[in-house]
């Protein structure tokens, strides 16, 4: 019977997400403007989770303004 030896692999190096520009709010859309305002306040206090959430919502709101 073969004996298998297990060893740890090389370390994984994680980096910050790419610095994609923030999505811009659509002119005349109060929802987009509010999300952009929340994002700006969150960035001021270092709440990057909320910044990311706002960016996701802006990209999806509402369905990309199609």
Describe the structure.
With 66 residues, this protein is mainly α. It has a domain of 36 residues. It is 42% helix and 0% strand. It is elongated, with a radius of gyration of 20 Å.
Element layout with pairings:
Elements (H helix, E strand, L loop, with lengths): L29 H15 L3 H13 L6
Helix pairs in contact: 1-2
Task: Describe the global form.
Answer: elongated
From the helix content, strand content and strand pairing, which structural class follows? mainly alpha
Helix content: 40-55%
Q: What is the CA-CA span between the terminal residues?
A: 63 Å
SSE order, one letter for each helix or strand? HH
By DSSP, the count of extended strands is 0
Strand residues, percent: under 5%
Spans with pLDDT under 50 lasting ≥5 residues?
none
Helix count equals 2
The overall average pLDDT, rounded, is 86
How would you summarize what this structure contains?
This protein is mostly helical and 66 residues long.
